[in-house]
Write a structure and sequence with these properties.
Number of strands: 4
Distance between the termini: 10 Å
Helix content: 10-25%
CATH class: Alpha Beta
Number of domains: 1
Largest sheet: 4 strands, antiparallel
CATH architecture: Roll
Strand order of the largest sheet: 2-1-4-3
Strand content: 35-45%
CATH superfamily: Cloacin immunity protein
Length: 90
């Protein structure tokens, strides 16, 4: 049996001055279809690349965050995709 690959997404927050990662916020309950709509992407976009967030996109993603994201000057916000492999139980 092959491994099951599950995609998850985070919003990663970087300091624009030194590009240091400051925060990572996990998105829960979001689907690829939701993300395509928010980022105005076609139906065949796999949403696995990094996408820089606008303030409007950050606001649209708020319902999928466990705590509110504070958009601040001097910070860059990116949607990042992560793949988690789960091996089947024997």
């Amino acid at each position: 049996m092959s491994a099951d690959h599950r995609l998850t997404w985070t919003i990663d927050v970087f300091d624009e001055a030194d590009e240091q990662l400051l925060e990572e916020h996990e998105l829960t309950g979001v689907t690829i279809e939701n993300l395509r709509k928010i980022f105005c992407q076609p139906d065949d976009e796999p949403m696995i690349d990094s996408f820089r967030l606008s303030e409007a996109q950050a606001l649209a993603l708020q319902p999928y965050l466990t705590k509110p994201l504070q958009v601040s000057p001097g910070r860059a916000y990116f949607l990042e995709c992560h793949s988690a492999s789960t091996e089947p139980q024997a």
